[in-house]
Structures are given as C-alpha cells and as structure tokens.
Amino acid sequence: MMMVSDDCLVECKIDDSDEEQISAPPPPPPPEFASKASTPAPEPPTPPAEPTPSTPSTPSTPPRPINRDPNGINKHLKVEVSDVLAEPTTPYSMDGVWIYSLVGFEKTRIWTYRCLSLLFAVPLAFLCGFILALLACLRVWFLVPCVQLSNTFLPCLRSVFICAVNVFVAPFCMSVALCCSQISILLSNKDFIHKREKDTV
C-alpha cells in the first residue's frame, strides 16, 4: 500500500455559512504532480448577442421635403390663404362655399405655378446660367486684367503727364498771367449814367 506524504496534501478551509462566497482560483498543485504541458488560457466570455431591431409593422414615415431655398431669398413668396382671403364674422358665406374657395385658391396657385415652371423653368435656368457665365468670363478675362494693367501703367503715364505740364503748360500759363496782370479797368458813375440815358432814348 502506497503512503502519501504530508507535503502533497493541501489544506482547504470549509465554510458552512449560507452567504455566497466569491470563488477563488484553486491553489497550484505541488511540483511533483504538475504536468509539463502548459494549461490553456481561459477563453474570454462571449458578449451577449445584441437583439436585432424588429421591423415595425407600421408604414415608414414619408421623408421630409428638401429645402430648395436654404438662403431664404424668396421668403416674401410664402403666401398663405389667410394672407389673401379672409371673411369677417358677419356677414359670411356658407361653409361649403368657403371651403371650396380655399381649396380652389390653393389648387389653382399650385398647379398654375407647376405648369408655368414646366414651360419656363428650364429655358430660364439655361438663360440665367448663360448670363452668369458670360459676366464671370468678362470679369475674369477682360475687366480685372484691364484694371490690373491700368494700375501697372498709370503711374508711368502720370509721371510723363506731370513732366509735360511742368515743361510746356506751366510756363505758358504763367506768362499769360503776368501779361494779363498789368491790365486794369476803371468804371465811373458818369459813364454808367451816360450809357443808361442812351438806352432809354
């Protein structure tokens, strides 16, 4: 019969209490009984599968209309029926007449705009695009180069013009001014009275 030595025995404490205890890892076995193969690492716990969203049985909500005027350049065209048609408390028409008038106003406004835009929207859009492209082309290739060339050459022309004025025009004007400065005109009351008498005769 084989006897087991006291070194191979492991002391374990037994707790009879009803409280839940946190499970601690078991102590390692003695080196005599330890296997040479490495124990595999415990696999990480798999996360619980996320519940798939159930497809609602109700129909999906309609998409919101696209804002075709993000900069608000045509806010003044947002005209409602109440901005045009309004009845006082008394007198007033029958309910059917009022309801059909509102419906007729809205439908006429909407469908007239749609028909006119069907006829004129595409040609006018092409025309606006052409005019804008023409203006941009003239600005890029004609107006701005002319302004830049003027800013480049005008200082040279200014210096030449100043030299011409100082050399030719200024001496001539000064000579004429000196000649005219010696001229004096004297008027007396007798001459004025004599001239008035001649005019009256």
UniProtKB/TrEMBL annotation:
Annotated region (Disordered), positions in chain: 1-72
Subcellular locations according to the entry: Cell membrane; Golgi apparatus membrane; Membrane, Caveola
Membership in a protein family: Belongs to the caveolin family.
Descriptive protein name: Caveolin
Keyword Nucleotidyltransferase in annotation: no
Keyword Cell membrane attributed: yes
Biased composition (Pro residues): 41-65
